[in-house]
Please model this.
Amino acid sequence: MPKRFTDKDKWEDDWYSSLDNDSKIVWEYLLDRCDHAGIGKLNFRLLNFCCNVTWNLKKLKSIFPDRVILNKDFYFIPKYLKFQYPTGLNSNKPAIRSVRNILIDKELYVYISELYGDSYLMVRESFSNSSITIKDKDKDKDKDKDKDKDKDKDKDKPLFGIIGDNVPEEKYTLQQVLDAGCLSGLSDEQLEHYFNKRNAVGWIDAANREVTNLKSDITNWRNNGYRFPDAPKPKESKDKQMLQQWEERYGDFVRKGDIKKVSADETIGRNIKNPKFKTWAIGQRPELEEVLNVI
Model:
């Protein structure tokens, strides 16, 4: 079951302490029900049932006007990101990439950039000394000229496109894995390890099949001792097996033996009726061609 950080000092916070009990429990409900990007599905029937209140969209807006962004299908808590990821979303870890992809999908990247700055989202390309990539100054000048030419075009380009273009698309997000594995008895760390392994190979299992049932695949992985079995080796063709057998049995004899003994050998004579063997033997000893073609 996914776990979240909480602030033990919230009870001393002026805003939180000013809420009545119903508002407090609704706020906690919103925090618990959102995904790892701070986004949750709006379901007032469930909210009212779980919190024992009778709230609607208007009530929610009036109580949390600056704390919750409301859409007809979902709600978003911006400060959730700053609290859960205080150093920013500028890492290429799978969980962080997943958050960025969700923000892209929900078109919330511009808002986050304006709220916390580009550096909160910008992915850094690091070297061994963990420094930010520094490009050649002359190249920068040339690029600046090109940027000036395309300035009007860039105005319509989403800011986050610069940040997320190199982020690979994922079949499943980390949150989906955590949700699917919440009843499997596995910890979040184990499920993240599963996510990293599966995501690295494009969600293909050991039988080279696409993973279509997360719960089943997670269960199989757990039952397999938390190991990912090696993909089965393709079966060798019969022709390749025969070539290996011929090489092991007759290779040295055909290549190094006396030409007359080779051509007169009974075993060679029996096998030479097989056109494939004949082709193989001539390939090993070209001078056999004239002799074997007579046989």
User: Anything to note?
Assistant: Strands lie at 39-41, 69-70, 74-76. The domain at 8-84 is CATH 1.10.10 (Arc Repressor Mutant, subunit A). The radius of gyration is 33 Å. The mean pLDDT is 75.
